[in-house]
Amino acid sequence: MDADLDTLATSLYVTTDDLLLAHPERVPDRPRVGIAPRISDAELLTLATMQALMGYTSETRWLRYARKHLRGLFPYVPGQPGYNKRLRKLAATMAWLVAELGAQTTIADDDVWLVDSTPVECGRSRETQKRSDLGGWAEYGYCASHSRFFWGLRLHMVTTVHGLPLAWALTGAKADERQVLEHLIDTTPALRRARERSCARGGRRPIVVGDKNYFGKAFEAGIAAAGIELLRPARKNEKPRAGQQFFKPLRQVIESVFDTFKGQLDLERHGGKTPAGVCARVAQRILALTAAIWHNDKLGLTRRSLIAYDH
Q1: pLDDT by 10s per residue, the chain, length 311
Q2: At 36, phi and psi to the nearest 5?
Q3: Which residues contact 297 (CB under 8 A, 6 or more apart)?
Q4: Any idea what the Cα angle at residue 296 is, between residues 279 and 155, rounded to 5°?
Q5: Assigned domain for 239 exists
Q6: Distance (Å, rounded) from C-alpha 205 to C-alpha 296?
Q7: For residue 259, what are the β-bridge partners?
Q8: What's CA 281's distance to the chain center, in Å?
Q9: C-alpha torsion sign, points 140, 143, 148, 154
Q10: Residue 81: Cβ-neighbour burial (10 angstroms; 0-12, 13-18, 19+)
Q11: What is the torsional sign of CA 186, 190, 191, 193?
Q12: Is residue 105 within 8 Å of 297, Cβ to Cβ?
């Protein structure tokens, strides 16, 4: 196979179609009687992945491009209202597909994880905040990396050292990162399977590397009880922690993942106006990154490179 967008799309469609046929419970319920959809769920998910990889933040512009240039891959391209509606209903399917594709890579069983969060801005003006359907979920928060306040959400993510997403969650901007990590550890099948593999092998516990915000005796005791070793830099007035000289290169990996989301996959230009819309657009971008890593891994290429797919 070649590292180009058409090949990735074909491979992704075939794999997604097989997975959805094997797991019909993962797609939204559809009435038994009525008009059959002219584009399948697997085709729509592939179309959405290509949109994110090619940097089209406008669904209208993307569908206009697809009708003109992608008829060979997609005989039928829906209108913008239908595309948007279908995509929002497929948000949970996209999240599930991220995990399924990740499990097929050679790096899925890595036992060193990275955890962090990044802002997902949803508006800037006070009037936007007052009128938005995201009010009550989106809130004001502070981004220490850029020394600025923002109104929106936070994307919390656990990845491997190669940048493969293993678990993620969207929360309000003020959510406690420690509570979110505990929730992800308890509820994410990929993390649970990794802990079970470590126990079965009798080897070391999985290691999660975080920043200084992942602290607290009760929190660290809970992580240890879950069978995971937490590594983080020492906070002010704490004694130096073992191995913290190795944390910075690892921390840069997840920072680079977030930079890919924002710089190449336009995470902060998601355009979502409702909770369902934001969830679908964020899941779409995580699926795009995972699909690229999955395809590159099969080809033996640099796993997190999107250069072959962004044009």
Answers
A1: 567 899 999 999 999 999 999 999 999 988 877 778 899 999 999 999 999 999 999 999 999 999 999 999 999 999 999 999 999 999 999 999 999 999 999 998 888 999 999 999 998 887 877 888 898 899 999 988 778 889 999 999 999 999 999 999 999 999 999 999 999 999 998 888 877 776 666 667 899 999 999 999 999 999 999 989 999 988 888 888 777 777 788 888 999 999 999 999 999 999 999 999 999 999 999 999 999 999 999 998 888 889 889 87
A2: -70, 140
A3: 105, 106, 107, 303
A4: 25
A5: yes
A6: 28
A7: none
A8: 10
A9: negative
A10: exposed
A11: positive
A12: yes
The structure's pTM equals 0.94
Please classify residue 152 by burial: count the beta carbons closer than 10 Å to its beta carbon, then call 0-12 exposed, 13-18 middle and 19+ buried.
buried
| Number of domains forming the structure of the chain | 1
Range of the domain at 265: 109-269
78 in a structural domain: no
DSSP assignment of 182-193, as one string? HHHHHH-HHHHH
The span from the CA of 295 to the CA of 292, in Å, is 5
The residues with which 172 forms a beta bridge, in sequence order, are 153
Q: What is the CATH number of the domain that holds 130?
A: 3.30.420
Residue 207 lies in a domain: yes
Residue 52 resides in a domain: no
Q: Nearest-CA neighbor of 261 among 301, 232, 292?
A: 292
- Evaluate the CA torsion angle 222, 227, 233, 237 in order and state its sign: positive
Sorted by sequence, the CB contacts under 8 Å of residue 26 that are 6+ apart come out as 19, 20, 92, 93, 96
CA proximity to 86, closest of 280, 290, 268: 280
Q: Is 75 helix (H, G, I), strand (E, B) or coil?
A: coil
DSSP 267: G
